[in-house]
Amino acid sequence: MASPNVTPAILDTDRAETKPRSLNSNQETSPSSSKSINETVNGSHEYLIKGYSLAKGMGTGKYIQSDTFTVGGYEWAIYFYPDGKNPEDSSVYVSVFIALASEGTDVRALFELTLLDQSGKGKHKVHSHFDRALESGPYTLKYRGSM
């Protein structure tokens, strides 16, 4: 399950300051301040992989992709690599990514991926972030988690 918190670009300014200048005794200083409020959007998506044991062994670098889903007005997808994304995973680890499917968008997100076994008892959480501005292309894969 992925729960991205989509956050727009951040401008963090508590107060504006100017260069010091000399004042006449008749002039007064006037304080200045500004505030930026960043809205976040919470959402979730459950991606169920039926027949997981058949997917295991499909090969390193091969993935299963979720349908795209919308959170915060953006399209997202989950990529699951049953044998890992990279050769160094040696089919011992799985790799899970969240990807932005909306093109031409500058998005930052915090997300949590939770992997459950078939009994629903085993939980493995991956916490990370997504920053589209750092990557190019329609899909950006930012984090490799293991289970």
UniProtKB/TrEMBL annotation:
InterPro entries: BPM1-6, MATH/TRAF_dom, TRAF-like. This is MATH domain-containing protein. Residues 21-39 have a biased composition (Polar residues). Residues 42-147 form the MATH domain. Residues 1-39 are annotated as: Disordered. It comes from the Eukaryota. GO terms for biological process: protein ubiquitination.
